[in-house]
Design a protein that fits this description.
Elements lengths: L1 H20 L9 H6 L15 H8 L8 H4 L5 E3 L4 H4 L7 E3 L5 E13 L4 E5 L3 E9 L4 E11 L2 E12 L13 E7 L19 H4 L25 E10 L3 E8 L13 E11 L22 E16 L2 E16 L2 E16 L2 E19 L2 E12 L5 E13 L2 E9 L8 E9 L1
Antiparallel strand pairs: 1-2, 3-4, 3-5, 3-19, 5-6, 6-7, 7-8, 8-9, 9-10, 10-11, 11-12, 12-13, 13-14, 14-15, 15-16, 16-17, 17-18, 18-19
Length: 434
Amino acid sequence: MKKYFENLTSLGIMTVLLWTLVPTKVLSIPAFSRKYRTSCATCHVGFPKLTPFGESYRQKGFQMPEIEEESIKEEPVPLGSEGYKRVWPKAIWPGSIPGSSPISFRIRSGFKYESDEDSEYTEFTQPALQIMAGGTFGENISFYAGAHLFEEGEAGSLDRLYLKFNHLFSNVLPYDALYVRVGQFVPDIVPFITNHRALTMTAFAFNTYAPAYGSGFVPGHVHGSGPFGLESFQLGAEASGILKSRIRYVLGIVNGNGVEEDNNLAKDLYFRLGYKMGGLAYDGTSDGDIYGPSGNNWAEKSLAVSAFGYRGTGVSSGKDVDFSRLGVDLNLFMRDLNLFGGVITGTDAEYHGGELHEEKYSLFFLEGNYMIYPWLIAVLRYEQANPEDLDSFRQVVAHITALYIANIKFIVESRLDPDNMEFNNLYLGMDFVF
């Protein structure tokens, strides 16, 4: 009990120190900020979490809703004259490349405390270095690349590398009706429940849990998991689109074997269908003032509800395993409070000795993000997994993000077991991008 209070005291002291250190002026220079000469806070809430405007910008292929040309402050380099459009196909259709390097870096490091029945330790964690590049090639082609160069002391790997073709067939289809991206990416099944755009270091069990884990969640910052994870990097193609401003769909086909070469003939299929009420629409349009008296670009009132599904085949221990996931989620903004959550069911099936064996589970979670100040955010998440043949188990994730400036932040985070409220882990982290 004494150690419990000592750790709580340390946590309180750290929080107070962060509070007193944070200045009010915010500036940042990641790649998109350089392009538009604007703060990271235009699209992010405590990066990498996106504001509704930032989510629209991402979905529309890294282009500002409706006002892209007027917003660009860093002129791109043209690849051919605009006059080539009039003589096509007798000339190459003109495009462009970014006017300066579109590369950004993200660096994370921290201090960790962990204890269990057998051991107790503290350590300064190995820094993680991530490189990212993104932008547009003219009006209707976007690109993105991301790689973890170093993580946990090990050489990293290429995470994402894709082209996205925007506003396809807009002469016969509605302007935002069809986007297609091809390459290596994270399937856009649960766009706001993602470790790549989350404030917390602890992975969402919604994306990472599989029956093979039994009665355990995946700790730490991960990108996929086990035999299958919704957020694993995948090779394939994905179509998406926005209909009547507030309906968005996603359809995808991928290898289903992560970043490795495919090891079977089957392909994985997935879908997502969502509708947003109130606030900024998916295409970036709105009806009047949506941010209320504060004017903050996260402070809208809206509710987005979606359904999604994934079905595929992988290989585990030399045997084919069929996966299926089906779920619903919601994303509610009430000014300074953002509540989001979901329910998912899953089945992993494989044959043993000619007999079919199925492992099933369900899982639900709810997370709240509250903007205490534009630079100080409190997070609380509850997750519960219900494997078919095991007892239910759960966890609570408590987190504080404090921005020093728009591109540098400090975090405090702990995972708690509601059935045993012993304080046995703590993460203090520093995260910055440039």
